[in-house]
Specification:
Helix content of chain A: 55-70%
Oligomer: homotetramer
Number of domains of chain A: 2
Structural class of chain A: mainly alpha
Radius of gyration of chain A: 20 Å
Low-confidence stretches of chain A: none
Order of helices and strands of chain A: HHHHHHHHH
Distance between the termini of chain A: 57 Å
Largest interface: A-B, 43 and 43 residues
Shape of chain A: elongated
Strand content of chain A: under 5%
CATH superfamily of the largest domain in chain A: Tetracycline Repressor, domain 2
DNA sequence: TTCTAATCGAGACGGTACGTCAGGTCTTCTC
DNA sequence: GAGAAGACCTGACGTACCGTCTCGATTAGAA
C-alpha cells in the first residue's frame, strides 16, 4: 500500500489546538473559544486550523469526545437497578465535572445554530450513551423484570435528561442520593 | 401626580423590534438574530435598540415571555395525575411549537455565554413553571396521596426535563401518549 | 412698542454655554467641544443650544469674539512704525495667549468645513484687524511717508500672517524682538 | 536575502485609497473624507484601511505628499531675489492649485486635533520647504548680500506665511505681481 | 540527490457585527 | 414662548472575528 506523499500531518498541532480550545471554552465560556483565540493560544496558524476543522465548536467537540473516550460500562454481576444507578450516576458525574461540563455546554449551545454540530453531538455523544441504557432495559424486559409494554424511550428520557437539564439551566447538579432516588422512582413506576 | 417628562417611549418601536427578533430567531436560528439584522428588519435604529436591550438574546427572551404569558393552570376538579399530565403535556406542546420552540432554543443557547440571560431564563421561565408542579406535588403529599419522604425536586426533574432534552438535542418531541406514560410511570414510582 | 411675549431668553444659559465651550475647546482641542459635551458641562439642554447656535464652532467663535472685544487701538502720538509694532505685537500676543490661541485655532479648523464659520471668521475677526493696519498705512501714504505705489494688501499680509502661520503649524510664537524685526524689515522695504 | 513572507501588500489598494481620499477631500471638504466614505469609494474594506492608516487625515496627507513630491529647486544662475521670487511663486501656485490647496487645507484643519498629523505636517511639508528658503538666505549672507545680523527665521516667515494665511481664511490667492512685490519689499528691507 | 506533494506559517484582504458617540429632529411637559 | 427632558434616526467610529487568498518555509516519500 502506498504511504501518503508529502509532509505528514503534525500531531503536535492537533493536540495543541484541542488543548487550547478546551482551555478557552472552559474558562471564558463560548465566545472565548474563537478560531483566532485558539490559534493564538496554540501558536498555530489560523490557516492550518481552517484546513482541519470547520468551526470552533467542532474543535471543542472533538476535544470533548477525545477526553471522554471510555464509555460507561455495566458493572459485572449488577442487578438492573444497580446498573441504572451506576449509569445515571456516572453520566451525572461527567456533566457535573468542572472540566467536561462547560465544554459540553458550549457544544450544546453551538449546536443550536450549526446542524453539523447538532448531528455530530447526537450521533457521537447522545446515542452511544442512550444505547447502553436501552440495552439494560431491554435485557430487563427479556428477563421478565419489566413489563413488555414499557415505553423504553420514555423511561430513558426520564432517567438521563435531568442531568442535562440542570447543566443547561445552571442549576446545581444532582447529588448521589438524588440520582438513586430518581432511578428508584422510575424503576418502581415501571415494574 | 407627576406625569412623565419628555417624549414618551414608542410602543410601535418595541413591538416591531420584538417581532423582528422573533422572526429572525425562528428562521435562520441564532446568529441570524443579530442586533444589526433586527434593526434592519424592524426599521428601527440600532442606537434605540441599545438603549432598551443589552443584547439580542434579551430581545428574543422578552418576546418569548411576552408571547407565552398565560401560565399553565391546573384544570379544576382534576386529580393529581390528571393535573400533572396536563402540565407536562402543555409544557411539551409549548416546546414543540414551531414558533416558541426555536425561540427558547436560541435563548438557552445564548444563556451559555451570558449570565444575565441565564439568570433571567431561570427566574422568569423555569422557576414559575416548576413552582406549579411543586405545588401540585406538595398538595398530594398533604392529602396523603404521596409519601412524605418523596424528594419533590427529583420528581419534578423527571417530569419536566425530557421535553427540554429533546428540544435541545433536536430529537422529535414527545407524543401525547409518551407524556401520559411518563407521568404515569413517575407517579407510580412515587406512591 | 410691544415688548417680546413669553419667557425671555436666559442670559445665564448663554454665558454658561459659551464658558463651557471655551473650556472644552481650550483643553482637549477640537473634537472635545461637541454640542453634547457643551450641553453636559453647561447643564443646559441640547435642544436649547440648537435653538440658538448652528454648530459647536459657532459657539466657540461667539465666545472668542466676546472675550476679545476690545480692538487694537493705535497709541496716541505714535509714529507709523511704532503703531505697526504695537499692532503686530498685540496680535501676536493674542494668538500666543493660552486662552485665546487654542480657541481661534479650533475655529480656523472648523472653518475649513463650514462656509458660515469661514465667512463669520473673515468678517468679524480678520477684516476689523486688517482694517486698522490698512488705515495706518494709508495715513502714512497720505503723509508722504510711504510711496503711493505701495501694494498695501501685500504689506498687511507680510505683517499679520506670520503669527497665524506659527499658530496653525504649532511653531513657537514670535518673540517681541522678532515682531520688531519683522515690522522694521517690512517698513524699510516700503519706504 | 530574506524575501517577505505572506501575501504581499496590494499596491492597487493603496493607490485606490489615496485617490478616493483625495477626491473626497477636494470636493465636499473635510467631513466628507471619512474612513467609511473612502472605503466605499475605493471599494476597499474598512479593516484594511485601519491596518495601514491611523486616520482619514493621515491618508489625505500621504496622498498630498505623494502628489507633490518634487521639491522647489532654485533656478540655476539665478540671483537671490530671483530665487526667492521663484520659490514663493511656486509655493503660492501650489497652495492656489485647485487640487492641492483644498487637500492641504483639510490636513491643516485636522492637525488642530491630532498631534500626529501636526507633527507629520510640520516635518514633512513645512520644514523641507522652509529649509530651501533658509539656504538661499544663508548663501546671501555668506556672499555679503545680506547683513549678518538678519533674523532669517523672521524673513522666512514674512515670505512664506502669506500664501498659507490666504488659503486658510479663504481669501483670494496672491497674484504673481503680489508675490514679486512681497519678495521685493522684504528683500529691500533686509539689505 | 533531486523531485514532488503535502503541511505549516505569515500575512493581506473583504466582510459583518459589535458597542459607542455625536449630530440633528421631534414630541411632550414645565416654568 | 423659553427651556428641560428624553425618544428617535443617521452615520461614523475603531475593534474583533470570520473565511479566503497568496505567498514562502518545511518535511517527508518517490524518482
Amino acid at each position: 500500500m502506498a504511504t501518503r506523499r508529502g509532509r505528514p500531518r503534525s500531531e503536535a498541532v492537533r493536540s495543541a489546538v484541542l488543548a487550547a480550545a478546551a482551555d478557552l471554552a472552559r474558562h471564558g465560556g463560548p465566545g472565548a473559544a474563537t478560531i483566532d483565540a485558539i490559534a493564538r493560544r496554540a501558536e498555530v496558524s489560523r490557516t492550518t486550523i481552517y484546513k482541519w476543522w470547520p468551526s470552533a465548536a467542532a474543535i471543542v467537540l472533538e476535544g470533548l469526545l477525545d477526553s471522554v473516550r471510555e464509555s460507561i460500562v455495566r458493572p459485572p454481576g449488577s442487578t438492573t437497578v444497580q446498573a441504572l444507578i451506576h449509569h445515571v450516576g456516572a453520566l451525572n458525574a461527567i456533566l457535573a465535572d468542572a472540566t467536561v461540563g462547560p465544554l459540553l455546554r458550549n457544544v450544546m449551545s453551538a449546536a443550536a445554530g450549526d446542524p453539523a454540530i447538532q448531528a455530530a453531538l447526537l450521533e457521537r455523544w447522545i446515542e452511544p450513551r442512550r444505547a447502553a441504557v436501552v440495552t439494560a432495559l431491554r435485557d430487563a424486559v427479556a428477563a421478565g423484570e419489566l413489563d413488555a409494554g414499557t415505553d423504553i424511550e420514555v423511561v430513558v428520557d426520564a432517567l438521563v435528561s435531568p442531568p442535562y437539564y440542570r447543566l443547561v439551566f445552571g442549576m446545581p447538579p444532582l447529588s448521589d442520593e438524588a440520582v438513586t432516588a430518581l432511578v428508584d422512582t422510575v424503576w418502581r413506576g415501571c415494574v
